[in-house]
Design a protein that fits this description.
The chain is 35% helix and 18% strand. It is α/β, with parallel strands linked by helices. Helix 6 links the parallel strand 8 and strand 9. Helix 2 packs parallel to helix 5 and helix 3 runs parallel beside helix 4. The longest helix is centred in the middle third of the chain and has 15 residues. The mean pLDDT is 97. The chain binds 1,3,4-trihydroxy-5-OXO-cyclohexanecarboxylic acid.
């Protein structure tokens, strides 16, 4: 079984009491326990370590290269200064994920610079202690299924992770549009588990990134990116049947793309934000819609106003992030929508490939594409 190292740097021993408004109330020992549980659910093991000393962190990284498949590293303030840790990460050549509990990009200017970033395989920040779980998940996914990274435009977010089925030609291509209220700290890593699941089931999967609020996104740049990425995938050889699966805010983008992209595809919304007027009224995610669309949202940014043909809409009745009424209203407005409301399902279950919620989606795609 693969082992990963979760390594914490200076001052993280004080988690739980240190600036709880920024770092929360979870202690380091609770976090270490949680990491072990997350690892077990991913079928791997973790060791945990913490040090306040730069040299000790470097020694631990060196040792990990012989014993571990990868490292989840929160180097604390060394992130912003330590070229020595950068060099250690580079030297050990096992994948290292950078993690920060807080939203470093929206704090002091000096925290916005990571000298470790270029040596790491990715960074997760601003998702609280849950960020360690996402980071571990990403390392396991990297190991599980190789990706081919494609670019569809010049900016840094214009990337697509393509995963091809191992044997026969693909049944269809499925494009994933991640959610996260269009905010920069949420990225395509959230969709990897289900993308791998569909690759294993014989689909070509394309997990897209796009510019978000804070990385040059907004309206309509974000939709332009999603449309550009879908067109790019549609031009790939060997595939002529498509679905675009959007989760949460990604569902708004998938539905809007159905209106503007010159390629026929089945849009699929999972826990989708589909009624933008309601989203403003509800103040979803502390004003996320206003941050994305501006104070006066344009009418044509709502899937309710888009011209969408056949679509699949799935929502959990226990979703506490995006009210189920979004999908009910959308389904009622379009007779071509197949609507599935799942009792007791929340917002994130769709992203877990072992969940019954995801299984509903898999079955629907199999029917649709005659698999
Ligand atoms: C931190 C952010 C760093 O800027 C800070 O120095 C830390 C913790 C985080 O987890 O948010 O010690 O890495």
């Amino acid at each position: 079984m693969d082992r990963y190292l979760v390594l914490n740097g200076p001052n993280l021993n004080l988690l739980g009491t240190r600036n709880p408004a920024v770092y929360g109330t979870t202690t380091l020992s609770d976090l270490d326990d949680a990491c072990r549980d997350w690892a077990a659910s991913l079928g791997v093991e973790v060791d945990t370590a913490q040090s306040n000393h730069e040299g000790a962190l470097i020694d631990l990284l060196h040792q990990a290269r012989l014993t571990h498949a990868g490292v989840v590293l929160n180097a604390g303030a060394y992130t912003h200064t330590s070229y020595a840790i950068h060099d250690a990460i580079e030297a050990i050549s096992i994948p290292t994920m950078e993690v920060h509990i807080s939203n470093v990009v929206e704090r002091d200017a000096w925290r916005q610079i990571s000298v470790l970033g270029p040596a790491c395989v990715g960074a997760i920040y601003g998702r609280g202690v849950d960020g360690y779980r996402w980071a571990l998940r990403h390392l396991v996914h990297r190991q599980e299924w190789p990706v081919e990274v494609m670019r569809y435009a010049d900016h840094p977010d214009a990337t697509i992770d393509v995963r091809r089925p191992r044997d026969d030609p693909p049944h269809a291509a499925v494009i994933f549009v991640h959610g996260g209220f269009w905010r920069h700290m949420w990225t395509k890593d959230t969709m990897e588990g289900i993308a791998i699941d569909l690759a294993r089931r014989g689909y070509l999967t394309a997990n897209i990134e796009y510019r978000r609020v804070g990385t040059g996104g907004g309206w309509p740049a974000t939709l332009d990116d999603v449309a550009g990425a879908i067109s790019h995938v549609a031009a790939l050889e060997d595939v002529d049947r498509f679905a675009v699966i959007g989760h949460s805010a990604g569902a708004q983008l998938a539905m809007m793309a159905a209106d503007v992209v010159d390629v026929a595809f089945l849009p699929v919304a999972l826990g989708g934000i589909l009624d933008m007027t309601a989203a403003v009224r509800e103040g979803l995610d502390a004003g996320a819609v206003a941050a994305f669309l501006g104070e006066t949202p344009p009418e044509d940014a709502s899937p309710l106003t888009a011209s969408v043909g056949p679509a699949l809409v799935v929502h959990g009745s226990a979703d506490d992030r995006v009210p189920v009424s979004h999908s009910r209203t959308f389904a009622a407005s379009n007779p071509q929508v197949e609507y599935l409301e799942l009792a007791d399902v929340g917002h994130f279950e769709f992203l877990e490939r072992s969940s019954t919620a995801w299984n509903h989606v898999v079955n629907h795609l199999a029917q649709r594409f005659g698999v």
